[in-house]
Design brief:
Blueprint: E1 2-6, H1 14-22, E2 27-31, H2 42-47, E3 55-58, E4 61-64, H3 66-77, H4 87-120
Parallel strand pairs: 1-2
Antiparallel strand pairs: 1-3, 3-4
Helix pairs in contact: 1-3
The structure holds glutathione.
Glutathione (GSH) binds at residues 10-12, 33-34, 39, 52-54, 65-66.
Length: 122
């Protein structure tokens, strides 16, 4: 069964879980990172030598980097749906994924932490 490694409240893990959900995939969530630890183990280094989450193992195939994982799952399990076969539709999907990661996410996460710190008086 597909394994997804990470903690479900990590901003980079959530899109991977979302993708698996959209594709209707059965998977086992292996809690790792943050208070769940495990990233410093030799076993995890075989999955992701960068010791970051998310990572997946699909059979013998291990992969890390959230956007690469999303593309892999979409290509393997969502050909013609989440992974469009038309090159223009595929390029449009890639365009929005790159934009969200490089342009939209950085200011949104800063705003999130600024608001959270203000609310908590930190
Ligand atoms: N570019 C990477 C970033 C991965 C990353 O920064 N992961 C963080 C969580 S969001 C991490 O592993 N932090 C250590 C931890 O959670 O213990 C990706 O998109 O997968």
């Amino acid at each position: 069964m597909l394994e997804i490694w990470g903690r479900p409240y990590s901003s980079n893990v959530i899109p991977v879980l979302w993708t698996a959900g959209e594709l209707g995939l059965a998977y086992r969530l292996q809690l790792a990172g943050g208070r769940f630890g495990k990233l410093d183990t030799a076993a995890y280094a075989e999955i992701n030598p960068n010791r970051m989450i998310p990572a997946i193992r699909d059979g013998d195939f291990a992969l890390w980097e959230s956007l690469a994982i999303i593309r892999y799952l979409s290509d393997r399990y969502g050909a013609g749906t989440l992974s469009p076969s038309d090159p223009e539709a595929r390029a449009r999907a890639d365009q929005w994924m790159e934009w969200s990661a490089s342009r939209a996410f950085p200011p949104v996460i800063q705003l999130f932490f600024a608001k959270t710190c203000a609310m908590l008086g930190l």
